[in-house]
Amino acid sequence: MYGSLKRGGRHHEELQGAAFLGEAETAPGYAVIQLGDYPALVRADAGGVVTGELFEVPESLLPALDEFEGDAYVRQNVAVKPYGASEMGMALAYLCKAR
Predict the structure, then answer these.
(1) CB neighbours (10 Å) of residue 94?
(2) CB burial class (10 A; 0-12, 13-18, 19+) of residue 63?
């Protein structure tokens, strides 16, 4: 949603087979930190909203994405609001594990 998998991002090819749904933002309480060359989504008490892109990902692609993201990240449900929508919904995102 927020990083290198976005359209035009250096690892967007990992989402081959996923359909772009539009831009979205998280509920308040998140932030993006830099881990070397990569952005990482984290929960943050003083965080705001994080903007990014929303994709419909086939369930069959999730194991490959889990492997790509590696052990430093965990896939979790995050409340998001697509741009133009009036209500929040849920989406999967990879959050950086606590260090």
Answers:
(1) 22
(2) exposed
Residue 72: phi, psi to the nearest 5? Answer: -80, -10
Q: Is residue 39 part of a domain?
A: yes
pLDDT the model gives residue 99: 63
List, for residues 16-69, the tens digit of each pLDDT value.
999 999 999 999 999 999 888 888 999 998 879 999 999 999 999 999 999 999
In DSSP terms, 73 is beta-bridged to 96
CATH assignment of the domain containing 44: 3.10.490.10
> Where does residue 69 fall: left (phi above 0), alpha (psi -120 to 50 degrees), or beta otherwise?
alpha
Sheet holding 30-35, edge to edge: 30-35, 38-43, 89-96, 73-82, 19-26, 51-56
Catalytically annotated residues: 69
**CA 43/CA 45 separation, integer angstroms:** 7
